[in-house]
Design goal:
Length: 78
């Protein structure tokens, strides 16, 4: 977690599933991913924001590089 939410909690769960037919030649293949689960504080209503950072390997022209990625999530709790 890069920046936690101010009005809730975030957890992560490793999942796997099959790609659908829109995935082209990869359709039907099983892939792994991370599910991001946000739970607001009891009684909270309004906007909340959090950021998740991770490191991703990149392979470019035979050399391995590392890329840092940060995703920002804006949640509207009703």
């Amino acid at each position: 977690m890069t920046v936690p939410p101010k009005h809730g909690k975030v957890s992560f769960k490793q999942v796997s599933g099959q790609l659908g037919e829109k995935a082209g030649r990869c359709a039907g293949k099983t892939v792994k991913g991370t599910l991001v689960i946000y739970r607001p504080d009891k009684g909270y209503k309004g906007d909340d924001v959090f950021k998740v950072g991770f490191v991703m390997d990149m392979y470019v022209s035979g050399s391995a590089k590392v890329r840092n990625v940060v995703d920002k999530y804006v949640i509207k709790v009703k």
